[in-house]
Amino acid sequence: MRTALAAALLIMSTQESAPKVVSPEIGPDRQVTFRVLAPQAREVVLTGEFLKGPKPFTKTENGVWSVTVGPIDPEIYNYNFTIDGVRTIDPANPDVKTGSTPSTISSVLEVRGDRPAFYDPQAVPHGEVRTHWYASKSLQTTRRLTVYTPPGYDGNPQARFPVLYLFHGANADETAWYRLGRANLILDNALAAGASKPFIVVMPFGYGVPPNGPSRPGENTARFSQDLIEDVVPYIDGRYRTIADREHRAIVGLSMGGGQALSIGLSHLDLFSHVGGFSSGLGQASEFPKTYARAIADAAKVNRDARLIWIGCGNEDGAFPQSKSFSEFLTAHEIRHTFKETGGAHTWMVWRRYLKEIAPLLFKDAKGSDVQ
Amino acid sequence: MRTALAAALLIMSTQESAPKVVSPEIGPDRQVTFRVLAPQAREVVLTGEFLKGPKPFTKTENGVWSVTVGPIDPEIYNYNFTIDGVRTIDPANPDVKTGSTPSTISSVLEVRGDRPAFYDPQAVPHGEVRTHWYASKSLQTTRRLTVYTPPGYDGNPQARFPVLYLFHGANADETAWYRLGRANLILDNALAAGASKPFIVVMPFGYGVPPNGPSRPGENTARFSQDLIEDVVPYIDGRYRTIADREHRAIVGLSMGGGQALSIGLSHLDLFSHVGGFSSGLGQASEFPKTYARAIADAAKVNRDARLIWIGCGNEDGAFPQSKSFSEFLTAHEIRHTFKETGGAHTWMVWRRYLKEIAPLLFKDAKGSDVQ
User: Fold this and answer.
1) What are the CA-CA distances from residue B134 to residues A122, B72, B239 (Å)?
2) How many CB pairs (< 8 A) connect A and B?
3) A128 contacts in chain B (CB < 8 Å)
4) What distance in Å separates residue A299's CA from the closest CA in chain B?
């Protein structure tokens, strides 16, 4: 087993041996250099959320390819290398974005500014992120579920808290909102700044069908909705000190999860009072009257029951026309809501900001809350 | 922003569009086919823990390279593709192993057997995995820490529990023992089978210096040890219902973490009573008398205080001679311990089995425990 021996020796010696190729290397001027050792390659190309289009590498000495871009604004970005036509990650960067399908695999570039960002860990009280394995009766399987508890949750055993149900997008999973979205750190920081109330966040796995498998239109949301309402919400109310009523439940999602949050939320105002969709995957506008039949049947009731309907989308996002059409649809049916057009594309850069923006709007007028 | 639009449309349409290339594809006979679309490549090679050595792909039609291996025994394996000399992952497989350095990045192949394995989620009560962000005074930074609480922890607010401190290896991080090691599922299953007692598991980040940076010999373990003893243990005893005495603390690790667990544990039997090292990174045998000076100075006390000293290593592992030498060193100093030689190399396949094997040995004779 020469390979096993070699692997073991490599592991033993890693602290001594620096990697041959450093990538990405962030300069003091925030110019960023990417490198890859690929002596046999004929073409290496960089794509990334910090670029307007693909950028070719140049072959330098010893088979190392290199490209420098920037200065790049402080942010967290995804990027990929394409080596002779094969889209892959930066082999020298341990920070890899993963999800539930391969299309989401990217390397991650984090450019720091002079001060911590709103999504950085700061010297404030921190909440916890908990992973549960729960038995879904609806889907007849064991599934994972992520829960954020705010700072002080364990230390205040008498306090009860509102709950935000927060959904990821297509190709992602139940870890996305904290691993990529930094939801826990954004909320820790907002709470420490006095900008928002403390609440629990529940991040379920958004697929009720296999992420890459075939499914009928609407099947995924229907199955996910059943799991959410019949399994997840009772599981959470049974295990956490929630305030288990509609006034203290919000439902928000991004992309595919935005469509889920809006369609489930606006059809179940008996369960939820705050509803939000970020860059939502909403389907054809011609289907809105059917999907939102329950809401438009009694707009006055929606306006009475919904404390917040928040729809946001970046105007560089391919999904922007859908969000705009949906806002117009709600307006035509006299359903009050906030429609927020921002800059930005279909990226976590936008969604982290949206979470920061809506956090202060959640549960601010809720009655019966015994939170601080 | 054509790229943003294209990305958004891709995300919207993913449930409809199957990936062009399926990899890995596991046949009913457990033959596994790997594929990659690489029309421009001249050489594609597969390496993996299920192979004795590298295996070349064959170029088939439409630029797709393919190789079939097996049958492969049910297990969880790491593998990589090397395309024209660049070591990378399988671009069609969303299951990616990551860590704290790039050398650990691999794709993951999970071959299932006819029945669930000891590390699979089964229909048993499940514990939780919690991620904390804690302020380390020793290291003057905010660090992450993973904690497993056994099933029933939240439901039995009067019960207190022993604690296993469990360390990862080089290149890994504080998520490795549950993401790759399946520690939570192994312990859920052992507990459900009546094979072990319930205990909390604390999985800290094992680096006190940057994982890829330069450091003096011993510096990493010294800094990690200070963080463990002065920050982590008090943090855990302050937040969890632990039994906060040496009888109810175990310290175990693998590879680099095995060396940490043995050196810290055997020098701090005032804090820990059960000590274990899996495939441990122990350094030079000539250094043992210095590193373990405190233990060998009073072997009788060690034999009185240590409820378990467990050293295991696979005989195909490059680290095997170190573990064997260390066992001989303890024997020469008349320190009672278990030395377990098994098959296997330096892999998670071995470490998952070791955790299953030692779980029943932990806290079985502990006094003063009010656990079941």
Assistant:
1) 10, 42, 11
2) 246
3) 130-132
4) 29
In residues, how long is chain A?
372
SS (H, E, C) A195-255: CCCCCEEEEECCCCCCCCCCCCCCHHHHHHHHHHHHHHHHHHHHHCCECCCHHHEEEEEEC
The answer, yes or no, to whether residue B207 has pLDDT greater than 80, is yes
Residue A296 to chain B, least CA–CA distance (Å):
25
Tell me what ipTM this predicted complex has. 0.89
The residue of chain A nearest to residue B145, with distances taken between CA atoms, is A128
Cross-chain CB nearest to B98 (options A9, A94, A100): A94
Q: What is the pLDDT of residue B9?
A: 40
Rounded to two decimals, the pTM is 0.91
- Could you give the percent of chain A with pLDDT greater than 70? 93
Q: Which of A5, A10, A14 to mutate to test the interface with B (most CBs of B within 10 A)?
A: A14
Distance CA A194, CA A359 (A): 11
Looking at the predicted structure, is the pLDDT value of residue A368 above 60?
Answer: no
- Neighbouring C-alpha atoms within 13 Å toward the C-beta of A282: 28
**8 Å CB contact of B91 and A91:** no
The tens digit of pLDDT for each residue in B237-285 reads 999 999 999 999 999 999 999 999 999 999 999 999 999 999 999 999 9
Question: Residue A60 corresponds to which tokens in the numbers above?
Answer: 């330098």
What is the pLDDT averaged over residues B96-117?
94
Q: Mutation test of the interface with chain A: which of B10, B14, B179, choosing the one with the most A Cβ atoms within 10 A?
A: B14
Dmax (CA) for chain B in angstroms is 73
- Residue A367's pLDDT band (boundaries 50, 70, 90)? low
Instruction: Give the CA diameter of chain A.
Output: 73
- State residue B16's pLDDT score: 37
CA distance B191 to B65: 45
Decide if B79 contacts B40 (C-beta within 8 A).
no
Rounded Cα distance between A361 and A370, Å, is: 17
Place of tokens 């991040």: A203
Write down all domains in chain B, each with its CATH number in brackets.
Answer: 20-111 (2.60.40.10), 128-361 (3.40.50.1820)
Beta bridge partners of A3: none
